């Protein structure tokens, strides 16, 4: 029995991976918001960049915890959920989201489902 097969393993993996993806999306959001402030508002830009740095350091630590607890072949595919999240963020910012992007996001979701479906975590 692998450590990932322990009771609550699937919920722990899902929660930590979702937290990681949310931090990655928050980092992308901060980077999206930053350009209008450069170079006029250097202090605000510094705060935004410090936020990006902090989120990515936290993600690094979280990935370490994920990889100690779960096999990389189980933990890493779920991180691809970032891509449909980015697509949703683009839509939120009124950027063009066409059928090809929606199909790509659907393929990513289906691929993650397939990669994780035959696991007994």
Structure commentary:
With 121 residues, this protein is an all-alpha fold. The chain has one domain. Helix content is 74%, strand content 0%. The mean pLDDT is 84.
Write the layout of secondary structure elements.
Elements (H helix, E strand, L loop, with lengths): L8 H25 L8 H28 L2 H7 L3 H11 L6 H19 L4
Helix pairs in contact: 1-2, 1-4
Total domain units: 1
Q: Quickly count the helices.
A: 5
Strand residues, percent = under 5%
Main sheet overview: none
Note poorly predicted spans: none
Can you count the beta strands? Answer: 0
User: Which oligomeric form is depicted?
Assistant: single chain
Mean pLDDT: 84
Structural class: mainly alpha
Distance between the termini: 10 Å
Give the overall silhouette: flat
* Helix fraction bin: over 70%
Summarize the helix and strand pattern as letters: HHHHH
Task: Specify Rg, calculated over alpha carbons.
Answer: 17 Å
Task: State the main characteristics.
121 residues; mainly alpha; 5 helices; 0% strand; flat
Question: What's this model, at a glance?
Answer:
Helices cover 74% and strands 0% of the residues. It is mainly alpha-helical. The model has no long low-confidence stretch (mean pLDDT 84).
């Amino acid at each position: 029995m692998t450590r990932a097969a322990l009771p609550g393993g699937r919920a722990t993996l899902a929660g930590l991976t979702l937290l990681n993806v949310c931090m990655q999306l928050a980092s992308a959001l901060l980077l999206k918001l930053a350009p209008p402030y450069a170079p006029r508002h250097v202090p605000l830009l510094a705060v935004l960049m410090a936020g990006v740095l902090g989120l990515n350091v936290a993600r690094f630590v979280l990935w370490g915890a994920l990889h100690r607890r779960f096999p990389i072949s189980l933990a890493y595919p779920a991180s691809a959920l970032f891509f449909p999240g980015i697509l949703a963020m683009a839509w939120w910012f009124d950027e063009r989201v066409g059928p090809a992007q929606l199909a790509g996001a659907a393929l990513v979701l289906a691929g993650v489902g397939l990669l994780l479906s035959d696991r007994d975590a």
